[in-house]
C-alpha cells in the first residue's frame, strides 16, 4: 500500500495531466465513458459526475467532470458570504459560489495541483472576477485563517485525502462559529473489495479512498460538527470496463453479488456557535 505522500503524488499527477491534455466534459471527458486511453488505462475520473450546466455561474472551461455531486446547489450560500472550496480544481464550484455571494462576498479555492491553480486563475481572469482567488495548498494544512469562512464546499475531494480526520479538523478550524459546510463525496455501503482498495491508481478516481457511509458520518460528528444531514444520496454502478482493470472474473462476480455498492452523498453540517458544541447562536 502506498504511503500518504505517494498517494498525494498520484493524485497530483493525474489531475495535472487532465489540465495539460486540455480535455473537458464537453469534449468527451478525460477517462469518461467516451474514452479509455486519454488518462492511461488506470483511473476513470468522471464516472461519478453530475451535470452542472444549468446552475447560474457555470463555466464550461472550468468543468472537467471530476465531481460527484452539486454541493454549491445545497450549500445555502448567501450574498456577502466568504466561501472556501476544498479541492477547487479549475474553479467550477467557485464560480457558481461567486454567483451566489455577489460582489460583496469572497470565494477562495484551495487545490494542491499547480496546473489546476493556473487554469483556475486563467478562467477567473477571463470572467473578470476580482473577489475570487485560488491558493495552492493541501486540505490537511489549509492556507486559510481561523474562522475565515462562512461556508465550506467540496466536491469529491475528501476521498483523495489520506488523512480525512485532519482534513475535517481543518474544515472545522476555518469555519466561523455558526458556519456550515456542504460537501459531495463518495462512500461505500460496505467494505470495498480488496482488489479495488489496494489499487493506488484507482485512488485518484475516488474509489479506493472511500470510507463506508457510517465511517464517513461518524468522522464528521467526531470532528465537532452538529446538525449533520445527508442532503442527497445517489447510488453509483461502476462499469464493467472499470472493474475488469482491477478484478478477475470471479472477483467481479463476488463484487456484484456480495458488495452493497458505492454512492455519492452530499452532506451538510454546522460548526457550533458555542464551545459546549450546542447550537446556541
Structure explained in plain terms:
It is a single chain. The chain has 281 residues and is an alpha/beta fold. Helix content is 32%, strand content 21%. It is built from ten helices and eight strands. Strands 1, 2, 3, 4, 5, 6, 7 and 8 form an eight-stranded mixed beta sheet that branches. α3 (92-101) links the parallel β1 (82-86) and β2. The longest helix is centred in the first third of the chain and has 18 residues, at 4-21. The radius of gyration is 18 Å and the shape is globular.
CATH superfamily: Vaccinia Virus protein VP39
Biggest sheet features: 8 strands, mixed
Mean pLDDT: 82
Q: Tell me the helix content.
A: 25-40%
Run of helices and strands: HHEHEHEEHEHHEHEHHE
Over all CA atoms, what is the radius of gyration?
Answer: 18 Å
Low-confidence segments, given as residue ranges, are 23-45
Which geometry do the CA atoms define?
globular
CATH-level-2 architecture: 3-Layer(aba) Sandwich
Amino acid at each position: 500500500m502506498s504511503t500518504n505522500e505517494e498517494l498525494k503524488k498520484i493524485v497530483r499527477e493525474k489531475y495535472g495531466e487532465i489540465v495539460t491534455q486540455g480535455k473537458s466534459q464537453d469534449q468527451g471527458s478525460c477517462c469518461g465513458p467516451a474514452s479509455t486511453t486519454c488518462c492511461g488505462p488506470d483511473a476513470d475520473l468522471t464516472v461519478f459526475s453530475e451535470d452542472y450546466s444549468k446552475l447560474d455561474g457555470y463555466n464550461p472551461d472550468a468543468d472537467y467532470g471530476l465531481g460527484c455531486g452539486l454541493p454549491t446547489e445545497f450549500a445555502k450560500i448567501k450574498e456577502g458570504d466568504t466561501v472556501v472550496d476544498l479541492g477547487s480544481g479549475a474553479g467550477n464550484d467557485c464560480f457558481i459560489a461567486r454567483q451566489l455571494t455577489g460582489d460583496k462576498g469572497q470565494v477562495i479555492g484551495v487545490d494542491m495541483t499547480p496546473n489546476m491553480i493556473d487554469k483556475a486563475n486563467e478562467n477567473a481572469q477571463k470572467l473578470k472576477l476580482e473577489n475570487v482567488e485560488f491558493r495552492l495548498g493541501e486540505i490537511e494544512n489549509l492556507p486559510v485563517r481561523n474562522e475565515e469562512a462562512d461556508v465550506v464546499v467540496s466536491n469529491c475531494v475528501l476521498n483523495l485525502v489520506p488523512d480525512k480526520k485532519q482534513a475535517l479538523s481543518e474544515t472545522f478550524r476555518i469555519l466561523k462559529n455558526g458556519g456550515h459546510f456542504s460537501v459531495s463525496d463518495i462512500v461505500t455501503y460496505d467494505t470495498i473489495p480488496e482488489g479495488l482498495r489496494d489499487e493506488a491508481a484507482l485512488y485518484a478516481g475516488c474509489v479506493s479512498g472511500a470510507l463506508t457511509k457510517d465511517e464517513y458520518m461518524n468522522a464528521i460528528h467526531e470532528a465537532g460538527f452538529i446538525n449533520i444531514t445527508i442532503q442527497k444520496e445517489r447510488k453509483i454502478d461502476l462499469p464493467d470496463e472499470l472493474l475488469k482493470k482491477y478484478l478477475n472474473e470471479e472477483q467481479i462476480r463476488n463484487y456484484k453479488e456480495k458488495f452493497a455498492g458505492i454512492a455519492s452523498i452530499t452532506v451538510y453540517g454546522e460548526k457550533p456557535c458555542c464551545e459546549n458544541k450546542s447550537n446556541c447562536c
